[in-house]
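Agenda item 2: S-adenosylmethionine complex prediction
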Amino acid sequence: MITEKCVRDSFAEQAGYCKILGSSFMSDLLTGLGKQLDKSTETGRRVLQWSGDPAHKADALALRLAGALHALARSGQDQALAKFYHNPELSSDAEFIPAVLSAIAANDDELYQWLEFAPQTNEVARASIIYSGLSVIAKRFGLPLSLYEMGCSGGLNLQCAQFGYQFKGVEFGDNASILQLSPDWSGELPPDANVEILSRQGCDLNPLSVMDADDAAKLVAYLWPDQPLRIARVEAAIAIAKNDPPKLEKADAAAWVEDRFQADGAKGNVRVLYDTIAWNYFPDPVKDRIDQHMHEVGSAANADNPIAWLTFEFDEEDKGPFLKLRTWPGGGQAEILASADPHVNKIHWLQEN
Ligand SMILES: C[S@@+](CC[C@H](N)C(=O)[O-])C[C@H]1O[C@@H](n2cnc3c(N)ncnc32)[C@H](O)[C@@H]1O
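Presented output:
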């Protein structure tokens, strides 16, 4: 049975992870809430009487409340709270947690509703590694690409060809873009190829639309206030997406892939399925259906109508994540192109050109 102590312990545990991941602000916030949140508000009651598993690997309850507070602070509705979010270095100040508790009391009705949502981010830095993989596909087939992303969240990385990249000082992508990414790069560079995107679409169990103000606020709220670079990247990607939003569908990945990938696809383009840090959230039967379907339609592919499947995921032994590519015609054997950290600060290119 989940007790109040379990919930408070889960906040302390999440605070520890946040500290390791470089966020003193989140560590101070969640440590303070874990000790001082009480049942005088609906938010406090729902948190402390949580019936599910509050742990990071399950409901991630602490991050749900943290996202709600970040959104409130960004809305400017509560100036006393916003002061700390604008100056995250003040999080060790004795007034911080009292300001948070006052904000919860004053905005209770708005905040407790956020507890229903699982935290959902869309890591824009992963565009670097996807774009590198697309360069390999474009070089191999010499055709434009039609992109299909499963588990795409807000679909921000479907815009990856509209971002600019510097890999070891060499420019790739759109170098006039307002969003520029330059991960540390080791190994050879990806091929210099004309990456032309014909179409972009994605699916998610809960797609977040950049055209919806609440969804766009969520994409930022689950980032951490003392990580301004990640926030700036997501804001830039949202601004780009608003000009030409990709088509996102609320769908389970297996049903969507089975519907979108047919053996008789249009000629003159490569249909590219891809996923980044989403595969391990899919149940095993969903994974099996996608795997089987891609191999079936792949066996009917030819040079005019090729298929590629690009993945940036942890492997079965939890190693990685690795960038892997399967292409058809050609049998669909997985080639390992690169490894990187999950937030793609560093890329190690493994493929020899
Ligand atoms: C960790 S997020 C990664 C989002 C995005 N790919 C990225 O790298 O920023 C995983 C995403 O997979 C989605 N998801 C989980 N199970 C799914 C399923 N069966 N079908 C489609 N999407 C799913 C979640 O809603 C979530 O948006």
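Discussion summary: The chain has two domains: 4-114, 124-349.
Owner for follow-up: CH.
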